Amino acid sequence: FFAKPWVFVRGVPALKFLPPEGPPEIAFAGRSNVGKSSLINALLGQKGLARTSNTPGRTQELNFFVPDGYGVVEAGLPPIVLVDMPGYGYAKAPKDQVDAWTRLVFDYLRGRPSLKRVFLLIDARHGIKANDEEVMKLLDKAAMSYQIVLTKTDKIKAPAVDKLVVETLERTKKRPAAFPSLIVTSSEKGVGLDDLREAVLTLAE
Ligand code: GDP
């Protein structure tokens, strides 16, 4: 179904608007500017699909995407649903916006049986930051399986990527809900997209 176009089906600004539990969901999370929109667009081969969702003042929503044809009830349930989560850690975000984000995201991560995995995007130039640690802590507490995805790896040299992979695995290996392997990507160069697709496929119904 990666050959098909995907469509945006729903933006969820609060938990009460979540679709009923159903097909497996995979969520993409990460700090603002980590390259999340670019990666989702590259993965699905559609340039304008995921918008940059961290613009200050914009409503923070969980954005749901499904393969085309499954956007209507009559077509049956999609085999997989991708969820673009609003970016976190935007320095200038007002406090009430941060609080709203925290509530929405944490509640979703904690209490959503349909959610099968979170791809936690980490910018290869920065590595794991304090707020990424906070999110990992929460995921561990919720026993929500997450896999690190390194982004923008074209921005650093190959040996630095190798070093970062080793360091990141070292930092996550004792974390109970962290997946034992990570995925190295560059949306710019098309690196790692097949690995990402394979990971998605293993979770699809
Ligand atoms: P988001 O805020 O996490 O959705 O991030 P975006 O996808 O909007 O990307 C943030 C910035 O990083 C943009 O200027 C992108 O062009 C750039 N970017 C995203 N992915 C890559 C990548 O793989 N390589 C490089 N060099 N730049 C990237």
> Which fold name corresponds to the CATH topology?
Rossmann fold
According to CATH, the homologous superfamily is P-loop containing nucleotide triphosphate hydrolases
CATH architecture: 3-Layer(aba) Sandwich
**What is the rounded distance between the termini?**
12 Å
Number of strands: 7
Give the proportion of residues in helices.
25-40%
Instruction: Report the structural category.
Output: alpha/beta
- Runs in which pLDDT lies below 50 for 5 or more consecutive residues are none
Elements, N to C (H/E): EEHEEHEHEHEH
The overall number of domains is: 1
What Rg do the Cα atoms give? 16 Å
Strand content bin: 15-25%
Return the average pLDDT rounded to an integer.
Answer: 89
* Major sheet attributes: 7 strands, mixed
From the spread of the alpha carbons, the general shape counts as: globular
> So what's the CATH class?
Alpha Beta
Quaternary structure state of the chains depicted: single chain
Sequence of strands across the biggest β-sheet: 1-3-4-2-5-6-7
* Tally of alpha and pi helices: 5
Domain EngB-type G: 22-205
Cofactor: Mg(2+)
Function: Necessary for normal cell division and for the maintenance of normal septation.
Pfam family, one: MMR_HSR1
Features:
7-stranded mixed β-sheet; 205 residues; 5 helices; alpha/beta; 20% strand; Rossmann fold; 31% helix; globular; binds guanosine-5'-diphosphate; single chain
Question: What would you say this structure looks like, in words?
Answer:
This protein has 205 residues and is α/β, with parallel strands linked by helices. It has a single domain, classed as P-loop containing nucleotide triphosphate hydrolases (Rossmann fold, 3-Layer(aba) Sandwich). Helix content is 31%, strand content 20%. The protein contains five helices and seven strands. A seven-stranded mixed sheet has the order 1-3-4-2-5-6-7, sandwiched between helices. Helix 4 links the parallel strand 6 and strand 7. The chain is globular and about 45 Å long. The protein starts with 5 loop residues before the first strand and ends with a helix. 35% of the residues are buried. The protein binds guanosine-5'-diphosphate. It comes from Jiella mangrovi. Its cofactor is Mg(2+). Necessary for normal cell division and for the maintenance of normal septation. InterPro entries: G_ENGB_dom (IPR030393), GTP-bd (IPR006073), GTP-bd_ribosome_bio_YsxC (IPR019987), P-loop_NTPase (IPR027417). Keywords: Cell cycle, Cell division, GTP-binding, Magnesium, Metal-binding, Nucleotide-binding, Septation.
